[in-house]
Every structure is written in structure tokens, then in C-alpha cells.
Amino acid sequence: MNSIQYWALKEMMKSNVKKDEEEHLKEEVRISTIVGSHDNIVYLKEFVENKDRYYLVLEYLSGGELFDRIVEADGGHFTEKDASRIMQQVMSALNYLHGKKIAHRDLKPENFLLVDNSPVKQARIKIADFGFACSAEGPNSLQGLCGSPGYVAPEVLKEKDGYGLPVDMWSMGVILYILLTGIPPFNGESDEDSLALTVRGHYEKSVFHLEDLSEPAKDLVTKMLTYNPAKRLTADEAFKHPWLRGSATDNLLNVQENLRSWRARMRFKKAIIATVATTR
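Above: the chain sequence. Below: its structure as C-alpha cells.
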């Protein structure tokens, strides 16, 4: 007996889509077509338009955002090995994208989605949202300010000599840092503060609780957050790193409570911003 497969439908009225948004949408579809199918990337099945609307038919994922699921996990147990298993999946996807010379340019926790409601330790994870993705033919071939505060690479913010695929490795390094500590490395009181911390490239290594982390874990995150993009670890090198190949330990990480506090602060800040915007 064949099982039923569900798809998500994204519908947009053309009258509500600005010219630059239309260009971004069609570039996103072009990139998604090049990407095709991968176990850890959200699949775009079809793009359709008529005289009034655009329709995107996407793989349906019911598991929610990765960090929310980590916070909600029963038992409070989250180990280096659990973090490694998550990184194996997303690095597999990023290595695949970079092999096709595609830069995502907006990697952040909100774009890591779970396929279903399986326990987070067993769940399959997929990278979503290719709205800023583009082809990167050379090390400095990309221009334009994009990405999210706290995750965007410093070379993007400098807007000097262009940038390339290494910007994704910086963002993934930030995400790994959070997976290991529950604390963002470039988390300021405001977006402006976060961006300023990123441009300086200095993050607080003491919050790592170094005694709780294996040397391979510290080595990987340090090499992913290398300030010079030319010296930063590539996706292929990271995917082959010993920490992702079995050396992660079973040591418990103090992640859930830290994540819970940080996520609560972020939601509160967004709520305040939304309230201010609606009262103007």
C-alpha cells in the first residue's frame, strides 16, 4: 500500500510582489533547480505562475525548527555526539551546495528544519530558504550585503573586496558554537552591536567551558570561525574533520538552559520591535 505524501504550497499574489522581489524569487527557483534533491536540503518540487499568482510546491516538513526541538527535548540530555550528528547532516548539505558552487548566504538556526517529530537525536534535518542563495564562481565573486546579524561573515559586512563560499563556513561555525554552548558568539544587545562584534571577529572563548569539550570540537569551531576567509576551513575539509567522523564524546553539554534563555530573549526583543512598529 502506497503511503500518502504531503507537499507545502506557497502562494504569492503578483500584485503584492515588487520588481526586486520578483527577481529574487526567480533566482531562488533557478538555484533550487540546480540544487535538485539532497537528503538534507528542502526540495522544491515545482514552480508555477499564471497571470495573477506564483506558486511554489515544496517538500512538507512537520518537525519544526532545530533549536526549538533541542530546547523541548525530554530528559535534558544533549551531548557532543548529538551535536556532531546534527553537524554531519548540515555539513553534508553544505558540502553538496559548495560542490555546485552555490553559496546559501543566510545560514541560521531558523533555516534548519526537522522532517518530522522524531526525537531530535534521531531526526533528519534539512536546510531551507534559498532566498539569498547564488552562484559563486570565484573566491571574491559575490557582492551585496545580506545575511542575518550574529551569523553573517565579517567580509560581507566590510563590503570591500567581495566574498565567496567561505561566508557559509563562518555562519556554520557560529551555529556549531551555539550547538556546543547554547550561547551565540556574537550576541550584542542590538543588531548593530552584533554586527560590530562580528566585524571585530572576537568571540569569548571562556564560555566554551573548555573542560567539557573535546579537543577536536574546539579545533573544528576555531577553524570554522577563522577571520581570514582564505584560511577558513572549507566545507569539504569540515565534513572530513575527525570530530564529524567519530571522535565526538558522550560528555553532556550545558546547552538546553542556555538556549532556552537566549531564545526567550530573542522572542521578547522581536515582540517589542513589532509593537513599536505597529504603534508608529
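The chain has a mean pLDDT of 89.
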